[in-house]
Amino acid sequence: MAKQEYAIAPSILSADFARLGQEVDDVLASGAKIVHFDVMDNHYVPNLTIGPLVCDALRKHGVTADIDVHLMVKPVDRIIPDFAEAGATYITFHPEASEHVDRSLQLIRQSGCKSGLVFNPATPLDILEYELENVDMILLMSVNPGFGGQSFIPSALKKLRQARKLIDDSGLDIRLEIDGGVKVDNIREIAQAGADTFVAGSGIYGFPGENDANRYDSIVGKMMAELEGV
Description:
Elements: E1 7-10, H1 20-29, E2 34-40, H2 52-61, E3 66-72, H3 80-86, E4 90-93, H4 101-110, E5 114-119, H5 128-131, E6 137-141, H6 156-170, E7 175-179, H7 187-192, E8 197-200, H8 202-205, H9 217-227
Parallel strand pairs: 1-8, 2-3, 3-4, 4-5, 5-6, 6-7, 7-8
């Protein structure tokens, strides 16, 4: 199976929540493809962020793009149906946060969403030997989860190459996403290692620009330009 088309997935955690609907509209109009939700519970990770009501609100606002919900919560099963009902496209979770990973993956698909697993910097990919056919997305963390604005951990490139080989050898239709420290100056190297989906929070929403509908065109355009020919 051919590698997925590249997609920029801005993390709304770094957006202006006072005008979130417009922020998402603007960044999608600038060429981003996926809306990334960082859901933190102050338990699995030391921060508290957003829940299904925000996802539902964006759908009601008119957002039709894929919404990629990254659950940094423990346990995960209770919240999966709520995000599915709220309009999530992808729901991904950390294996450490589920007592029964296979059952959680099945629950996501049974709820009508695409499923995925998230691997922290020090978490091996071993579980994919048993669950590769049950995932639609593999998300590799290139920072430790829980906080925005961290620097990219270089060892994630090695893990990206490992995950890309697993996907290519399987022939399955699986997105390979990277999250953490993605910037204009490293996105090309990250893509060369195998990623096709790029989460960026402060790297996009923190980019200086005019307060108008085109303010994200420059940064998203620069990222996409770096991906040309990879």
